[in-house]
Amino acid sequence: MRILHTSDWHLGRSFHRVSLLDAQAAYLDHLVRTVREHAVDVVVVAGDVYDRAVPPLAAVQLFDDALHRLAAAGVPTVMISGNHDSARRLGVGAGLIARAGIHLRTDPGACATPVVLHDAQGDVAFYGLPYLEPALVRDSLGAPRTSHEAVLTAAMDQVRADLAARPDGTRSVVLAHAFVAGGEPSDSERDITVGGVAAVPAGVFAGVDYVALGHLHGCQTVTERVRYSGSPLAYSFSEHTHRKTMWLIDLGPGGEVAAERVDCPVPRPLVRLRGHLGTLLEDPALERHRESWVEATLTDPARPDEPMARLTERFPHTLSLVFDPERSPQDPSASYAQRLEGRDDHQVAEDFVAHVRGGNGPSAQERTVLRAVFDDVRVSDGADEVSR
């Protein structure tokens, strides 16, 4: 069975205030062509279909058009909700849509109810694990702890139990939206940390033939059977080195996996430039970046006059301007942003406590309280998005 694995469409997202709807439409055109040209048997979409819980109308129309085209091609599609999606909204009408071969899996309680498809070698069971917010699904899944590893393990235990009851030779594919250890994140993924821990071990998914992951935006192989497709477009300058692709997976009769990357169209290259403003404006070697989306980091000791206007004369698509003056780390004028670079919200809060206490940081008990507060706020925001 030939599977096209994609994820993280983030329909409706912009890039530094530049609309990406045309680029997303071009990607979906490419996806449908790939399905036809490569004789794909099933498309899997591993979450974050939309960029936010209440997407703009243009993004909904783009999604609706894509579903109609996939259904018209006669190719089944299995799709899960991600942490950016509203599971309830995405799942509306799932029962009716399934009649057209579009299978939406957004209910955590249905993790062990697969979409069963067939080829010449027999059955393939596709299990959809939507994004599982630990605090919201722990009880329904019977997980022993409120953590990503615990709820995913509980869901996978149900998957393995269902698979064990199926006829011998039934092959299996799991779709999941999670941060799996060994994956490399970028700046454009929303934090899903719980209790200071975001990643789960790949061993959680043991016992299935292929795991189609979503959430991380770089295409990558965790193991031969556990892969991220990544996002089809770059959504932050941290992705400027990414090769945006989808996975074309051939699942053999005994569960063998052969994988090939299919490139996605690039609307405009990304580049990060760094140096003094004069150098960026005058260096002839940089002319090749004239049509790229540019993030420029200026290292001039003093802020130059009208830097953005001057940069856009040479690089019309400059979208981001960062100032990082050449100073020693001991320089008292080092910026607040520099002092916070690489530190998460928990660390910033702990640093603040130490600052107001004259250098005495929080105790172990206070650290636990701080983490619980941050987790509660994040869970509350997620629950609000689901209910809106």
Detailed description of the structure:
This protein has 388 residues and is an alpha/beta fold. The chain has 3 domains: 2-263, Metallo-dependent phosphatases (Purple Acid Phosphatase, chain A, domain 2, 4-Layer Sandwich); 269-326, 2-Layer Sandwich (Double Stranded RNA Binding Domain); 330-388, no CATH class. The chain is 31% helix and 22% strand. The protein has 11 helices and 17 strands. It has helices at 21-37, 57-72, 87-90, 94-98, 134-141, 148-164, 277-282, 307-314, 336-340, 345-356, 364-387, and strands at residues 2-6, 14-15, 18-19, 42-46, 77-80, 102-105, 115-119, 122-129, 171-177, 210-214, 220-223, 226-228, 245-251, 257-263, 270-275, 293-298, 318-323. The protein has a 6-stranded mixed sheet. α1 (21-37) runs parallel beside α2 (57-72). The longest helix has 24 residues, at 364-387. The two termini are 39 Å apart. The relative contact order is 0.12.
Task: Write the topology of this structure.
Elements: E1 2-6, E2 14-15, E3 18-19, H1 21-37, E4 42-46, H2 57-72, E5 77-80, H3 87-90, H4 94-98, E6 102-105, E7 115-119, E8 122-129, H5 134-141, H6 148-164, E9 171-177, E10 210-214, E11 220-223, E12 226-228, E13 245-251, E14 257-263, E15 270-275, H7 277-282, E16 293-298, H8 307-314, E17 318-323, H9 336-340, H10 345-356, H11 364-387
Parallel strand pairs: 1-4, 4-5, 5-6, 8-9, 9-10, 10-12, 15-16, 16-17
Antiparallel strand pairs: 1-13, 2-3, 7-8, 11-12, 13-14
Helix pairs in contact: 1-2, 5-6, 10-11
